[in-house]
Amino acid sequence: MNVVVVGGGFAGVKAAIEISKRHLGKVTLISDEPYFLHHATLYATATGKSMAESVIPLRHIFAFHPHVNVVEDKMVSIDPHRRLIVGQNKEYHYDKAVIAIGSVTTYFGIKGMSDHAFGIKNIDEIKAFHNHIHDEVVNQRLDKEYFIIGAGPTGVELAGALCEYLADLIKIHDLKHSKARITLVEAAPRILPRSSETAAQKVAARLKKMGIRVLVNHKVEALDDDHIVIEGTTHPTKTAVWTSGVANNPFFAAQGDTFQLAPNGRVIVDEHLQAVPHVYVLGDNNTVKNSGLAWPALHQAEYIAKHLSRIATKRPLVPYKPRTFITGVPVGENWGYVEQSGVYAAGRTGAWIRRQMELKGYEKLVPKRVAKDLWRAHYIPEIDV
After folding, report:
1. Measuring CA to CA, which residue among 177, 183, 176 is closest to residue 162?
2. Nearest alpha carbon to residue 292 among 301, 300, 283
3. SS3 call for 11
4. Whether residue 101 sits in one domain with residue 250
5. Which pLDDT does position 275 carry in this prediction?
6. Integer angstrom CA distances of residue 265 from 12, 130, 246
7. Residue 50 within any structural domain of the chain
8. Are 320 and 286 within 8 A, CB to CB?
9. Which ranges of the chain does DSSP label H, i.e. alpha helix?
10. What is the DSSP secondary-structure string of 192-233?
11. How many domains does the chain have?
């Protein structure tokens, strides 16, 4: 069996690893970047923590899985009839294809947002944000108010981390006259709109205690180099970070004759995560319950490997069953909120559990000793500004 996996995120990398372990045949992983991004820790890397915990070269991961051929390329199109993936550099024939190419940022048409907002979704965005903070410190003048747009998990995590990071910078560099305020803006009626009411309440109380201003039911209307407009009111700022909207990868809409899309743009798959014959779509890209999060992506990848193994050995096929995984949101270094099936923990216990979740996530991709090193990198700051 010749399996081609497209995508270097959680679902794609895990699928390639698990399929390779089962010795089903040739496995090729196509990624448009030479590294894996650990999205759960990008907020920390953006606020002074080590790049090592968030950016892992694919060659390091697949050094432990030499039967996977890792190729840096970008998929341009797919022809299911010929079982052919066309990349920018070459063509790839497959018996089975697994596509997990992640989501992209969308700004919902808000004026000036794409040109002026910072982001923390990839390495270039993180470097741009970090350089911006560096320039402020060099000039001995932090922004008076930092706006984070979107109070989902990423926005909340960044708000807590940025609050502590700025406090450290003010102390380290003796910026006595700097009084930086952080404002978290959310268009929905509450923060963490996709989480439980309890999560929203506990986290909101933590943010308030940290001195972070939260605006809910507030829509951002425009952004330029020096101002942000929220509900008709203009606020001076040079720092607005967008953590709000994501959309399905535009590849699927461009292949509209091949894939059936739901109203939200995601790919409709069957009970085996198959979108069209011999092509499986995982993670952020499909309509399965809880897709878009790391743990469900890993779970889908493990399922696909078992499914292909059943096909290869002519055993009865088993449908995919989504699971509800524990979710966690850190708010500062020593406080977190975690929840599963209505049971939650908050505070230091929540922070500890969340850190254990991160360790287990690394262990899904690399051997335990390597996972521990990546996990410990969180405590090693980058060369500070």
Report:
1. 183
2. 283
3. helix
4. yes
5. 98
6. 20, 32, 11
7. no
8. no
9. 10-21, 42-45, 58-61, 113-116, 123-138, 153-172, 197-209, 250-254, 294-312, 348-363, 368-376
10. STTS-HHHHHHHHHHHHHTT-EEE-S--EEEE-SSEEEETTE
11. 2
User: Of 217, 242, 267, which residue sits at a domain end?
Assistant: 242
Look at 77-81, 136-140, 152-156 and tell me which has the smallest mean pLDDT: 136-140
Phi, psi of 45 (to 5 degrees): -60, -35
Characterize the bridge pairing of strands 274-276 and 279-281.
Answer: antiparallel
335, part of any domain: no
- Token pair of 319, please? 């449908």
Report pLDDT digits (tens) over 246-291.
Answer: 999 999 999 989 999 999 999 999 999 999 999 999 999 999 999 9
Q: What is the C-alpha to C-alpha distance for residues 287 and 290, in angstroms, rounded to an integer? A: 8
* Same domain? 188 vs 292: no
DSSP 190: S
Distance of CA 299 to the CA centre of its chain: 16
Tokens of 273: 């995560």
CATH number at residue 317: 3.50.50.60
Q: Which residues form the domain of 137?
A: 113-242
Same domain, 148 and 237: yes
What Cα–Cα distance (Å) separates residue 38 from each residue in 4, 43, 183, 217, 317?
22, 10, 26, 31, 32
| Model confidence, pTM | 0.95
**Phi, psi at residue 166, to the nearest 5°?**
-65, -40
Decide: 213 and 182 in contact? Cβ < 8 Å: yes
Note whether residue 354 is domain-resident.
no
Query: What is the DSSP secondary structure assignment for residue 335, as one 8-state letter?
Result: -
Higher pLDDT, 179 or 183: 183
Q: Which residue has the tokens 């008076």?
A: 144
d(CA 261, CA 202): 36
Tokens representing residue 154 in the block: 């990423």
Is 135 part of any domain? yes
| Helices 123-138 + 153-172 axis angle, to 10 | 30
How high is the mean pLDDT of the chain?
Answer: 95
Of 192, 215, 242, at which residue does a domain stop?
242
What is the per-residue pLDDT for 384?
Answer: 53
